[in-house]
Amino acid sequence: MLGHLTTLLLVSAGLVLTTADLSGASVVPTGILTPADLTRLASVFQDTYPYTDLQTAYHATGGLSLLGADIHHAEDICKFVKEKLDPRSAQSLFWASSVAKNIGKCVLTLSPEALETLEGVETRGTEIANIYHSLMTLKNLGSGFDSKMVLAAVNQALVDDETLLTVIYAIHISAEVKDVNVDNAVAKIQEVVEHADEVDGKYLQFESGLAITSLFIEGAYKLAQHVITAPDITEDQLVMFGNYFISRKHVQTVKNAFYLVNAIETLANNRFHNPVAVTMLSKPTISADNRKVVVKVSRLNGAPVSELTVIAESAKRQSDGAVVLSRKPLTQSKEDRTVYELDFLQAKPGHGFYTITINLAPQHKEDDRLVGTIGAQVEVKVTTQVVIGQVQVSIVDLETSSIADSIKPVYPVKSDAAMEADYHQKFSMSFDLLDETTREKIQPHQVFLRLTHSETLRDIYFIAEPQTTGSYNININLATAGRSSFNNLSGQYHVQLIVGDSIINNPFVWDLVDVSLLFGGDTDQTDQPESQSSDYQPRPEIVHVFREAEKRPSAVVSNTFTVLVIIPVLVLIVVWMKLGANVSGFQATPSAILFHVGLAGILGLYYCYWAYLNMFTTLKWLVPLGGVTFVAGNKLLKDIAQQRTT
Questions:
Q1: DSSP 290
Q2: Distant-in-sequence, close-in-space partners of 646: CB < 8 Å, separation ≥ 6
Q3: How many angstroms separate the CA atoms of 223 and 190, rounded?
Q4: DSSP letters along 40-74, please?
Q5: N or C: which end of the chain has fewer CB within 10 A?
């Protein structure tokens, strides 16, 4: 029970996740409801019309009302509500009165039976759900109630049942009563929060899901507004609740959509705590064509916040932690006061990935309502143009290390030199890759040399490794690589340099030169790859081959076995003849004939099974044949027994 929750948490520490002792960096909002999200949610509410039940009507009209959207077909909805209203159900009365309030100009006249149902709001022993629904119905209709009696009924309900939902209903009801002490309900807020589950240090929710979590947040801030005191919820806890709701923004059902919007609007518009989110609007790639980091600073529902100073506290390069920017104010957009911009290239950052930490501060006076204003982070990638220089391609003798041939091609032109090399030499290439802006040497993730055979189109790749100086050098020993990489396939090869990286705007494939290579030894034909054109040709048909049947014994063995099986039958006939067997007693009745024919048929079926039939086919024939033989045999035995008694 929640009344003993503190004790239970101390006893079972580690079994229940809480946020009582959060440490480390503050939690910040992870997102907002964008205009596209709000439009989609409005469509979820509108598409449910025509309604099938009061609950759907309640969620749909309530969601549209929270979004400030128009509710169409008001007259038809009002008529529908009056038809579906169940005067004996407090929940039905609550839904109907709420829909009538949402659409306006819909007057509900309650019958004596409905009024009798609502009297349970002040009766001890009434379930708290009925108390809540009855109370909210009276409020929707503008009717009064006895607050003391209502609170007494609530306290009695808490004694009987102190589950999570019961306590949340009690908080909601306490926010509606007047001139009574509700300190007990205020204290329950902290207990309920401690009962929430923390996920990944970012989200806070109740196990029952979105509806219960939303209902609690709404009740907590309604009660806080009633007593004019902020609820006992820490900033980090509140932000994590908000993050949970944002993570559920892609809900599809009208019920979940209603509770999502209800919670977000509560967090965005209450007078005590308003989470503020910083979200990226611009592309995360920063280049000469896209210099600015553009962020949106808003409440969780996308609404603007009071005038703020938005500061980029720092910008750190992820690779080495270098700080390239510190306490740089962002500029507010003139068109949209929720949008702020930062010309990131003014800091002259090098290429790489950066984490920008953004802090928010009110411009005029301290606003205690704003939550999540410290430590928001966005990630950007600074890209650059790469240039290649100091390119040299050489053919070097392995024994003397003398250069037999050398060229210095210039990007992006292909050299028309006719280079030749054999297995006594090595192919060598050196070059520098430079940042076009800073002229510093850079090391992209992908730097390859590709050699393609002109006839077979076979590709051989060699990885270029940077040296300690930052330059690249590729050496291909044709004596050893001839067998291991080229399969001794001599001929002309097209040489290409491939450079690519996520931080490079101009990845390229440079056709360098054609070189003729001669290898010693024979080519292994079994290792010859298929040409690239064969990739688009039909493949041989795959034909499944069943396992071959095992060999049967030879005909001599089979025939010998058959004769051995038949011999006992022949011996039996001979013995019968010697003994003078009497077959005159055989009665030619239908049952006798059918029984012996069936018995012979079963023996024949066994032979067929042994010769060529499978088990399933044999059983298919054996069932009817055996059945007929059984019935005929039974009749034959009865006839014989009757004949003997007479």
A1: B
A2: none
A3: 13
A4: HHHHHHHTTPSPSSHHHHHHHHHHHHHHT-----H
A5: C
Please give the full DSSP string across 294-340, using - where no structure is assigned. EEEEEETTS---SSEEEEEEEEEETTT--EEEEEEEPEEPSS-TTEE
Helix, strand or coil, per DSSP, at residue 218: helix
Strands 508-518 and 418-422: parallel
- Measured CA to CA, the distance from residue 357 to residue 433 in angstroms comes to 31
Please report the DSSP string for 364-409 in residue order: SS--TTEES-S-EEEEEEE-B-EEEEEEEEEEEETTT--EEEEE--
Tell me the pLDDT of the chain averaged across its residues.
87
How far apart CA 238 and CA 252 sit, in angstroms, is: 25
Rg (CA), the chain: 44
Which residues, listed in sequence order, are joined to residue 418 by a DSSP beta bridge? 514
CA pair distance 44, 64, nearest whole angstrom? 10
Record the tokens describing residue 502, joined without a space.
Answer: 């996520």
205 has which bridge partners?
197
Give me the count of residues in the chain: 646
Tell me which long-range contacts 587-595 makes (C-beta under 8 A, separation of at least 24).
587/639, 589/636, 589/639, 591/632, 591/633, 591/635, 591/636, 591/639, 592/632, 592/636, 592/639, 594/628, 594/629, 594/632, 595/629, 595/632, 595/633, 595/635, 595/636
Bridge partners, residue 314, by sequence: 326, 357
Dihedral, CA of residue 486, residue 490, residue 496 and residue 502, to nearest 10:
-10
What's the one-letter identity of residue 85?
A: L
Angstrom distance (rounded) from CA 587 to CA 552:
44
Tell me the one-letter amino acid at 12: S
Average pLDDT over residues 413-425: 91
Confidence class for position 233, pLDDT limits 50, 70, 90:
very high
Rounded Cα distance between 34 and 301, Å, is: 7
* Two tokens, residue 5: 């929750």
Euclidean distance between the first and the last CA atom of the chain, given in angstroms as a whole number: 88
Residue 320 in tokens: 């080495």
Cα maximum dimension of the chain: 131
pTM score of the predicted model: 0.71
CA dihedral sign of residues 204, 208, 214, 219: negative
